[in-house]
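Subject: Sanity check before I submit

Could someone independently write out the structure tokens for this chain? I want to compare against mine line by line before I put it in a report. The sequence has 714 residues.
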Amino acid sequence: MSMLPAERTGMAVRPTAEVRWAEILDAVLNTADDGVLITDAAHRPLACNHRFGELFGCEIEWVVQADWDELLEQIGLRLKDPDEWRRQMDGIVAQPYRQGHGELALGAPEGFVLWRTAPIRSAQGEPMGRLWRFRDITEQKKRERIQQILYEVSTFFDPIPEKNYMFVLQKLSEFYGGTTAAITMRDKEMMIFKAAINVPEWARDLAGVPFEEAYCKRVVSTNRPVLLQNALQDGEFHHVPLAQLGLTRYLGAPVRLQSGQPLGSLCILDSQSDRVLDENDTQLIALLAMRVSTELERERVITERIAEQKAALEQRERLLQQSRQILDSLNQGLQLLSESVSPRQWLQRQVPLLCQAFFADSVALLARTGDDFWGIEWREAESIARDWTPSKRMAQVLERLARPRVFTWNAPSVRLWQVHYHALTRLETRSAPPLWLMFGAQTVSAFEDPLIKLLIDSLLKQIAIGWELVWTRQSLETAYEDLKNTQEQLIRQEKLAVAGTLAASVAHDIRNIISSLSLSLAVGEYDPKRALEEVRAQLDRFTVLVHRLLVYARPRLLARERVDLTDLLERVLSLIMAQARIGRVQVHFHRSRNRPQVVGDPHQLEHLFVNMCLNALQAMTPDGGHLTLRLRKQRGYACIAIHDTGKGIPPERLATLFEPFQSGHSEGIGLGLYSCRNIVEAHQGRIEVESQLGAGTTFRIWLPLAADQGGQER
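---
Independent answer below. Compare away.
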């Protein structure tokens, strides 16, 4: 046997007559991992291995006896697109020297095959046949598809969590050929379908299945992925309805809380038990279940936040309604002050207003003149005001309640009376007899809100003011009548002419007082706010607290817009200028030439600076002084310095100055500076304070400038 030239054949062969080439060819073909087919120049099959037969479902003995067309037809039975395969082969046959390759998509069972072919040439280089190789790339294609679905799922995001986990279900179902994909959640003894796709028609109305009959039971119990290739062959689930209905293939992975505790599963469910799943499928569904867990946790957080916001809005609406009723009672109380009524008549007119303001079933106002208690009671069910005299035991309890404006909720002493009142307070009075308020309500929780408490406190103060005014007016009118009678007697008695003249003069002064009060109260019918300002100027400046009340209200949601601080501070100074004149305080405003601007809520910023300025004015009461505001830019911030020449703040109070319920005034509530700090921090700013006893106090507020003025984007 002669040796063939290596440059002509691409290989070298030792010349020998002892080599059995048929056996060598058989060994080579059967040890190859690929399917191998050799055809001659006429495309007749000459040889093939067992792997070729396995790939295309044919006997290899039949292959070497079939002609080309028969072989193509047999291979086409395993392909999803046999026509395309035949077109490709026609092109190969038409060009004997051509090499070729491509992919074939197999039908059931599904798979992918990579084919390659090259001509077999003679020593002279002429084509004498063709070598075909067919490699099963099903696992490779599956891994590529898994990587693709994981990439698509990881890059997909929607603000709504449901859209994200529904996208996962869609991709999972598509990956397994449109099978049923679902997210199940355990609810006591049931597995509930939270979401599903491609559900069989007979199961679309099914909300869930019993936990003991659900394949997901094993996932939740073990907290691990579970593969059931054929549930009919599983000792635990072969008898459950799903298996009996033909849904025998199951693959699921646990959906977990952040703590790792299983909530349910992400799973696929179908009848394709003949299509084998493997570890790659288990890893895929476990990774997808992690994404679903993340979205379910995000959905839970969003749902809780929405519920909290809804509850907050509902609470705010209730508070708004309560505030309106209290303010309406305030306004009606002001109008009542303009009418000339006796103290008893005033109490009769006041109790239904209080019943409305407190949402109460009953209200009683009790007074003490001398040693006697008397009062007026209003019961909403009867809608009538009637006289009411407390028992001696109740009178003793009222005497012990000496501190003004203290509520006693469901106190034991109240229950001992065996009456339907739940709250009791003594109103602060000075020149009028003591006055107690009692009311009964189905619930007192509505009065626990700070804003409502402040409004109620304002209402109680107004009641006390009204009581003193009514009582003082009656006293003045009585005194006027007495003096008038005295004057008449003195005139009739010429011996007392000088005393009569003096009495007339005093009576004239009293008449002027009554006229001034009547005029102020008459104005209240058309301008309640102005009348209230006149009253508080005479009775402890009541309206100052009402004016500052809005600062302590629950802050609204921050609305951001561009704010010119120069304009804002000028508006603030115009609001407090009248108060400054009353307190003998001179106001100075040093503006910045470049007009600093910030991004924030103009209403909250206005409340901030009004409150800071009112605090400064109060610090200089009653001696007066100077209030100085300085506005400048510094290192990306607008700095607003507010300086007063008051008596200063003790060093031991500086550490807790901005904490709630810390006040340096006996009448203060201690929420003003706390509210100011919250507003500043909500605008990403900070607030500082410097104080020296006897020299005054300086507050500096730093707010980030707008981006185009040197600030940073926030």
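---
OP: Matches mine. For the report I'm noting this point. The first helix runs from residue 6 to 9.
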